[in-house]
Design a protein that fits this description.
Blueprint (H helix, E strand, L loop, with lengths): L1 H19 L47 E6 L13 E7 L4 E6 L5 E7 L1 E7 L5 E7 L3 E4 L4 E5 L6 E7 L7 E2 H6 L5 H8 L3 H11 L4
Antiparallel strand pairs: 1-2, 2-9, 3-8, 3-10, 4-7, 4-9, 5-6, 5-8
Bound molecules: 2-acetamido-2-deoxy-beta-D-glucopyranose (2 copies).
The site of one 2-acetamido-2-deoxy-beta-D-glucopyranose has 5 residues, from loops.
Organism: Erythranthe guttata
Main location: secreted
Keywords: Apoplast, Disulfide bond, Manganese, Metal-binding, Secreted, Signal
Length: about 210
């Protein structure tokens, strides 16, 4: 009887430990993206390439309205980090470039400036403002979900890397949410206290209608 129960305990331990050890869940990008990430690619299909991302060798294209580029290495671009609770992005800001006020609903973020400088900050839920100028080598953290921004006030291109506490941090840019869709101008004016001319101007710049 004792032998049987030891045997059963051992069997249970072995099966439990086998079941709980799953080193990785490389994203199967052919399947749907769910709130808990992608389903796993069969382990036999996983290669070293799944754990490597080479898209940061060159900076993003900053010839655009914000004079800046965000190049994400989230789970959709970098399948190996599916399920691992982190991700990374490269930020390129030409002189005068700006990453407009935005939030990542799903992640906190740490940013490291590797070239140039940035003026950056965030606004807390209590509407307190935390702004600093970061030089090359400096790091700042933005707590999850809070509005934040980056501006390159210097004379040369600034480069930074941002690391996130989720493989899919999400990105909501306030101006795009307000002025780059078909939310009726009347509702925007009512809910933001902006005047009609300003709302129409921003809609035309950012491609909004209505
Ligand atoms: C895994 O590899 C097999 C054989 O190459 C292929 O048929 C199958 O579609 C692959 N599955 C996924 C999810 O990549
Ligand atoms: C950068 O984007 C602009 C505007 O879309 C485009 O005209 C230009 O060719 C792009 N440059 C490169 C190097 O891809």
């Amino acid at each position: 009887m004792i032998k049987l129960s030891i045997f059963l305990t051992l069997t249970l331990l072995i099966s439990t430990s086998t079941a709980s050890v799953q080193d990785f869940c490389v994203a199967d990008l052919t399947g749907p993206q769910t709130p808990s990430g992608y389903t796993c690619k069969p382990p036999a299909n996983v290669t070293a390439e799944d754990f490597v991302f080479t898209g940061f060798r060159k900076g993003g294209n900053t010839t655009n309205i914000i004079n800046a580029a965000v190049s994400p290495a989230f789970d959709a671009q970098f399948p190996g980090l599916n399920g691992l609770g982190l991700s990374i992005a490269r930020l390129d800001l030409a002189p005068g470039g700006v990453i407009p006020m935005h939030t990542h609903p799903g992640a906190s973020e740490v940013i490291l400036v590797v070239q140039g400088s940035l003026v950056t900050g965030f606004v807390s839920s209590a509407n307190a403002v935390y702004v600093k100028k970061l030089l090359k080598g400096d790091i700042m953290v933005y707590p999850q979900g809070l509005l934040h921004f980056q501006i390159n006030g210097g004379g040369k291109t600034s480069v930074a890397f941002a690391s996130f506490s989720s493989p899919n941090p999400g990105l909501q840019i306030t101006d795009f949410a307000l002025f780059a869709n078909n939310l009726p101008s009347m509702l925007i004016e009512k809910t933001t206290f902006l005047d009609d001319a300003q709302v129409k101007k921003l809609k035309s710049v950012l491609g909004g209608t209505g």
